[in-house]
Amino acid sequence: MTLEVEVKVRINIEKVKNKLSNLGVKFIRDQHQLDTYFSHPCRDFKKSDEALRVRITANKYFLTYKGKKLDSQTKTRNEVEIEVNSKIFNLLKALGFSEIRKIEKQRSFYRWDNLGVYLDKVEGLGEFLEVEGDSWEDKKKIFQLLEKLGIKKNRLIRKSYLELVGEEL
User: Fold this and answer.
1) φ and ψ at 164, to 5 degrees?
2) How far apart are CA 97 and CA 74, in angstroms?
3) Mean pLDDT, 10 residues at a time, over the chain (169 residues)?
4) Cα 106 versus chain centre, distance
């Protein structure tokens, strides 16, 4: 299990893209992602603040489990992600998991120091910035980057795209 320290904020991609460029944040690639979220047959992930999804990107499949949030300022969670193949959908269905929603997005990947910086255009939700690290020490760096971008902490969103889509319904 690895730690994922993450913040998310609603943005205008073009404005933030220019700011990232001015800060020397390195562009990596653009990628389409399709996430399929599942409900557990015996446990309410919404109540336990967990998530299970299959992400399809660049013709690869990733099964990801996200534990409950561990901090009140960020979306920090324990996470397990493994590469699988398309048969994972059959396995999950056979085990009683149910597909609850698909989230589709266009993601631009950037790197700043050891942090992942993502500009997401999420279908039906809009444009977001996510910044991720993999240790508690990264939290300080994440907030430094947000400050350089002129983004205030009170704008941060602790909900997942799945939770935000649920609110939009």
Assistant:
1) -65, -40
2) 28
3) 95 96 96 97 94 97 97 94 98 97 98 97 97 96 96 94 80
4) 12
Round to whole Å and give the CA distance between 159 and 167. 10
Cα-flanking dihedrals φ and ψ of residue 14, to 5°?
-60, -40
Q: Tell me which amino acid residue 24 is.
A: G
In this prediction, residue 38 carries a pLDDT of 97
Instruction: Report CA-CA distances (Å) from 38 to 19, 29, 50, 130, 152.
Output: 36, 28, 11, 22, 33
Please give the pLDDT value at position 168.
60
Residues whose CB is less than 8 angstroms from the CB of residue 83 and which lie 6 or more positions away in sequence, other chains included: 60, 61, 62
Catalytic residue flag (residue 37): yes
Give me 114's structure tokens: 């050891």
Residue in 37, 110, 118, 161 annotated catalytic? 37
CA distance 5 to 58: 24
Residues 6+ apart with CB under 8 A from 156: 7, 8, 9, 73, 74
Q: What is the pLDDT of residue 167?
A: 72
CA-closest candidate to residue 4, choices 83, 84, 46, 67: 67
Letter for the amino acid at 38? Answer: F
